[in-house]
Design brief:
- With about 250 residues, this protein is an all-alpha fold.
- It contains nine helices and no strands.
- The protein has one domain: MetI-like fold.
- The chain is flat.
Length: about 250
């Protein structure tokens, strides 16, 4: 079975297992106030998705996510590849990638709110810094380990170019897979960062909607909001992972 198809099937199976566990858990809890049943949540999600209220929240979150995530993905991959090209560029960009890529940058969010207020630009900036540096570090490490292969001088001239071509092709595929993996991780971190920011402050966005629904003990709306964010994110991440594993072979 091709890795692409296998990964997508694994994602679908995982969602099915989660759904089955949810049905069992809601039956055991027997309390819609704590864990509403899956059919009720799905019905609520179908009602919420096209509603004006949820679309406003979704539009606000989507704008902030795109403004922060896309530049972070591009910058992270670009500077990560440059950093991995040579020892010189590694020493130039590596200190930022290693340190900031390992820093829990969510700690900076309260400062952003204090400096710029609670705006779409603030949320986008938070997504950018929380996504960009981890991706940069991941791509730097992956591309830095994929050096061009130089054959031993003792090998025959007739076979050396073939060995080089095969090894370098494998290195290129591995580096491409690492970049796609960075994009996948970036999507997951970006959505997570955005929701955390909207949990912390603000009066718009899907994170705010989920937090408000939970604060009023409307668990059906809360779980429906979570599903409307989590399921598309899972599917997008699974799709990118499927491509990554197919490229890696």
């Amino acid at each position: 079975m091709p890795p692409f198809v296998r990964t997508l099937l694994e994602a679908i199976l995982g969602l099915a297992i989660i759904a089955a566990a949810w049905v069992v858990a809601s039956g055991v809890a027997d309390s819609a106030a704590k864990l509403p049943g899956l059919p009720a949540v799905l019905q609520k999600a179908v009602e919420l998705a096209p509603s004006d209220e949820f679309l406003r929240h979704f539009g606000d979150s989507g704008t902030a996510l795109l403004l922060g995530l896309l530049p972070a993905l591009l910058a992270g991959v670009f500077f990560g590849m440059i950093a991995g090209m040579s020892r010189g560029t590694r020493w130039l960009f590596g200190p930022f990638a290693v340190t900031l890529g390992a820093t829990p940058l969510v700690l900076m969010v309260p400062l952003f709110f204090a400096w710029w207020g609670v705006t779409i630009a603030t949320k986008a900036a938070a997504v950018f810094i929380m996504v960009g540096f981890p991706i940069m570090n991941m791509v730097m490490v992956a591309t830095g380990t994929k050096r061009p292969v130089v054959t031993n001088g003792n090998e025959s001239r007739r076979h050396a170019p073939i060995v080089d071509a095969n090894a370098n092709a494998a290195n290129t595929a591995a580096a491409a897979a690492a970049i796609i993996g960075g994009l996948r991780v970036g999507v997951v971190i970006g959505v997570t960062a955005l929701v955390i920011v909207e949990f912390m402050a603000g009066n718009h966005g899907v994170g705010y909607f989920i937090a408000q629904s939970a604060s009023t003990l409307d668990m059906t709306a809360t779980m429906a909001g979570i599903a409307l964010v989590a399921v598309p994110t899972i599917l997008m991440a699974a799709f990118l992972q499927a491509i990554q594993e197919q490229v890696a072979g």
